[in-house]
Write a structure and sequence with these properties.
The complex is a heterodimer of chains A (196) and B (301).
Chain A: E1 2-4, H1 12-23, E2 28-34, H2 37-49, E3 53-58, E4 64-70, H3 80-84, E5 85-92, H4 100-116, E6 120-126, H5 131-134, H6 141-151, E7 155-159, H7 160-165, E8 176-178, H8 180-189, E9 192-195
Chain B: E1 8-11, E2 17-25, H1 32-49, E3 53-63, H2 70-86, E4 90-98, E5 103-112, E6 128-131, H3 137-145, H4 151-162, H5 166-172, E7 177-182, H6 187-196, E8 200-204, H7 213-220, H8 226-234, E9 239-241, E10 260-264, H9 266-278, E11 285-292, E12 298-300
Parallel strand pairs in B: 3-4, 8-12, 9-12
Antiparallel strand pairs in B: 1-2, 2-5, 3-5, 6-10, 6-11, 7-10, 8-11
Helix pairs in contact in B: 1-2, 1-4, 1-5, 3-7
Classes of the chains: A alpha/beta (196), B alpha+beta (301).
Chain lengths: 196, 301
């Protein structure tokens, strides 16, 4: 897909690129033609912060074509971190998956299975009662699983306000305290968010 | 007359000099009253940057009456008048023309004591720099125009934009300040470069520079107006980074109604910051230090 953003002022090129990227399926390339440094830098910024690979090439008349690769690329992975992790955020809003006793078991089961995946999510964000997971007893199954995530380099954040609300701030045993802004940035920043 | 400074200075006698400045802007928020306040705060700022007090102001309006009812104009002017009143000035008239796009601002006259004028390019080595408002306003007003921010964020931004530099200007007079300017169209680094005047270098600690998180988020998405890139290109051989930082572009972001950039002695710096914060200027922070002139005028770590 190609879009022409020549002659457009910020934020229009970025908005059009964003819209085009959203409309594209996986494994596709979006080409954006721009004619100013600001547009070029902004479109590259958008693509890179959204986790896509992007290349730019100068064209005649001060124009630049930017190729944004959405989906899998055949690059030789130089970044081992990118290799081990999916650019996704696991967003936990509760200490259970669904209701009741089963819900508490399911969350443990789900986290344990996730650990088996070839690529782990980059981050786990816990809000509301999910902060009970990161403040669970040291020898509880869920804490042991979360510690493995942390040891493997997955970033774990617990919502500070939620920790305060449930009075468990002093019991946090794994990961860091996150704030609302950081959380939102993670949710919007990565390639995707999985919520249970 | 001086030509390099924020406002013009005309010496009247040994006790008084006339300070004059004019500025107009197009709307940055939808609310007309708020827009009036912001445009006025933006216009008045140069007087405060020089350490002056406002005497009179005149409205300068380009009004698009095809798209806006008269009541909008009334609200804009009321907003502007409220800010002039806040700093002890009076609106003495003005002029309105028909325009295809709405513009509003003030022509301002004030006074300053000729021996107590703050220049924008006279910092002393080892002074530190204080910034009184957060950066990112150019980015955020662009995002507001594209309707990308929540109402609560828009209100927060509008509130910062409408804040006068009057109080900061009054407060700094009690401290050992060597130079002052307001951060506007050239961005923090553009105005800091002016301040360095090829006589000193300035080092900034980027993690201390107040930047609104919402501006960071928008910058990450690429919502950065062209002015920031123009400012950056202009300073490309003047700036050195120890570690290039993704927020660097925000240091070039053109500010509407930006804060004061104050050079103050090390001894007074903490006292001044504390005083500013206690008076409600909560974003006031020490962001840099003046060094002897090195290879580059501006550095950041």
């Amino acid at each position: 897909m190609k879009i022409d953003c020549c002659g457009l002022a910020c934020p229009e090129p970025v908005l059009q690129t964003k819209k085009a990227l959203e409309s594209l399926g996986e494994d596709a390339i979006l080409e954006v033609l721009v004619d100013s440094i600001a547009s070029k830098e902004n479109v590259l910024r958008l693509a890179q912060n959204a986790g896509y690979e992007a290349r730019s090439e100068e064209r005649e008349g001060g124009k630049t074509i930017i190729a944004i690769i959405k989906g899998f690329t055949c690059n030789i992975a130089s970044d081992t971190k990118a290799d081990t992790f999916l650019d996704k955020t696991l967003f936990l809003k509760s200490d259970k998956v669904g209701e009741g006793e089963l819900g508490a078991k399911l969350v443990v089961g789900f986290l344990k299975s996730t650990l088996e995946l070839p690529k782990l999510p980059k981050r786990i964000v816990c809000v509301n009662t999910a902060v009970y997971l990161t403040t669970a007893d040291e020898d509880s199954p869920v804490m042991q699983i979360l510690k493995v995530f942390e040891a493997k380099g997955v970033e774990i954040y617990s919502c500070g306000v939620c920790l305060d609300f449930y009075g468990v701030s002093d019991k946090l045993k794994v990961g860091k305290i996150g704030n609302a802004y950081g959380t939102i940035e993670m949710l919007f920043g990565g390639e995707g968010t999985i919520s249970l | 007359m001086d030509e390099n400074d924020d406002a013009s200075i005309y010496y009247l006698d040994e006790h008084r000099a006339l300070v004059q400045t004019v500025d107009i802007i197009t709307p940055v928020v939808d609310d007309p009253y708020m827009y009036g306040q912001i445009a006025a705060a933006n216009s008045l700022s140069d007087v405060f940057a020089m350490g002056g007090v406002v005497a009179t102001a005149m409205n300068i309006v380009g009004f698009d009456s095809c798209h806006h009812p008269k009541s909008v104009l009334k609200e804009i002017l009321e907003g502007g008048a409220s800010k002039v009143k806040e700093c002890g000035g009076v609106i003495v008239g003005g002029h309105t023309i028909q325009a295809p796009e709405m513009t509003y601002g003030l022509s301002v006259a004030g006074f300053v004591h000729p021996k107590k004028i703050y220049r924008n390019n006279t910092p002393r080595i080892s002074d530190v720099l204080i910034l009184t408002k957060p950066l990112g306003m150019g980015i955020l007003t662009t995002a507001i125009k594209a309707d990308m921010l929540e109402e609560s964020v828009v209100e927060k931004v509008a509130h910062i934009l409408a804040e006068l530099n009057y109080k900061a200007s009054q407060i700094m007079k009690s401290y050992d300040v060597s130079a002052c300017t307001d951060v506007t169209g050239f961005g923090l680094f553009g105005h800091a470069f002016e301040m360095s005047f090829n006589r000193v270098s300035i080092v900034f600690d980027i993690k201390n520079i107040p930047i609104l998180n919402e501006a960071r988020a928008m910058a990450d998405m690429g919502i950065i107006p062209a002015g920031a890139y123009t400012n950056k290109a202009y300073l490309s051989d003047k700036v050195e980074a120890k570690n290039p930082h993704k927020d660097e572009i925000i240091l070039y972001d053109a500010q509407t109604s930006g804060g004061l950039l104050i050079a103050v002695s090390q001894d007074d710096a903490i006292k001044l910051v504390t005083h500013l914060r206690n008076e409600g200027l909560a974003y006031s922070t020490i962001i840099g230090e003046i060094l002897p002139l090195g290879a580059k005028s501006l550095l950041y770590i």
